[in-house]
Amino acid sequence: MRGLLLAAAMLGTVSAAHAADMPDLPILRGSVTDGLSRTSHNWDGFYVGGTAGYTADATDFGQSVVGLTNYIFRDSVLQGPTSTWSLLQKANTQGVNYGGFIGRNWQWYDAILSLEGTYSYFGNLSTGSTGSNALVIVNPAGEVRPAGITHNYAVSLTGTATAQVKDMITLRGRAGWDGGPFMPYAFFGAAVGRMDITRTVTSDVRLRTDVTTTDIFGNQNTTIGTTWVPVPSQSGTQGQHRTNTFAVGWTAGLGLEYCIWDGLFARIEYEYVRFSPVMNTSVTLNNARLGVGYKF
């Protein structure tokens, strides 16, 4: 028994001496690398900054005055035919934008997720369209007429509409990639814009009545009416104006940030914004921006 204990003690002494002679491996000092991660910059944290850029505005006025014509021709057989008229056209304009942003980055190795709020002010971003249309509507559907009577409605419409986008706020989610001093990213979110919108339409309706008779031999003879009689109940002007009305929409785009020094970074991005129609007027924005920010 004494022999076994003596042998075990000698082996323990030899093992300890051998371990002391082993080189100081890096793994023993806790300097293991982060696996496959290539992270070389810390983008995590809160950030804030300002932007300036260029905006292209595309506004569709095609259905802008339909609500007004529907009101003029309410309870009338002319409402259906005139509701399909595209009285106005699309219009485009350009302007500058200024704004700011604030957000928070969360970084996992090379992946970066962000939640960001932005504000944009647009300088003189106003569009407008004017148009007219005239058509003779014969015996509109739903009208009750005596036998042999033909009603010819000469309908003339003239309209105008304008839209000015004043400013906008967005709440965006971003997904980026740590490329060292560079961070490319994509974003998607909600947008709310503040606008001034006006629309006006004038209608003039005149009626001509033609009479068709049949003689004893079955021959038909049509007498064309000699006058166009005004229809005051369906003629007139309607207008509507909204100031500082809000339009909701969505936004999406791409961008690139570059770390200039420490927490200071520069940004370039493209943003697409589409608002829901307000008074049947649809606004779409394409924004290009340059910005500077600081990450805390």
Could you walk me through the main structural features you see in this protein, from its secondary elements to its overall organization?
With 296 residues, the chain is mainly beta. The chain has one domain. Helix content is 10%, strand content 62%.
Strand order of the largest sheet: 1-2-3-4-5-8-9-10
Rg calc: 37 Å
The largest sheet, given as strand count, sense and whether it forms a barrel, is:
8 strands, antiparallel, barrel
- Helical content, roughly? 10-25%
Please state roughly what percent of the residues sit in beta strands, choosing from under 5%, 5-15%, 15-25%, 25-35%, 35-45% or over 45%: over 45%
Helical region count?
3
| Oligomeric assembly | single chain
- The number of E-state strands comes to 10
> What order do the helices and strands follow?
HEHHEEEEEEEEE
Average pLDDT figure: 87
Question: Which structural category fits the helices and strands?
Answer: mainly beta
Task: Tell me the span between the first and last alpha carbons.
Answer: 69 Å
Count of the separate structural domains: 1
Q: Please tell me what the overall shape is.
A: rod-shaped
Query: What ranges have pLDDT less than 50 throughout 5 or more consecutive residues?
Result: 1-39
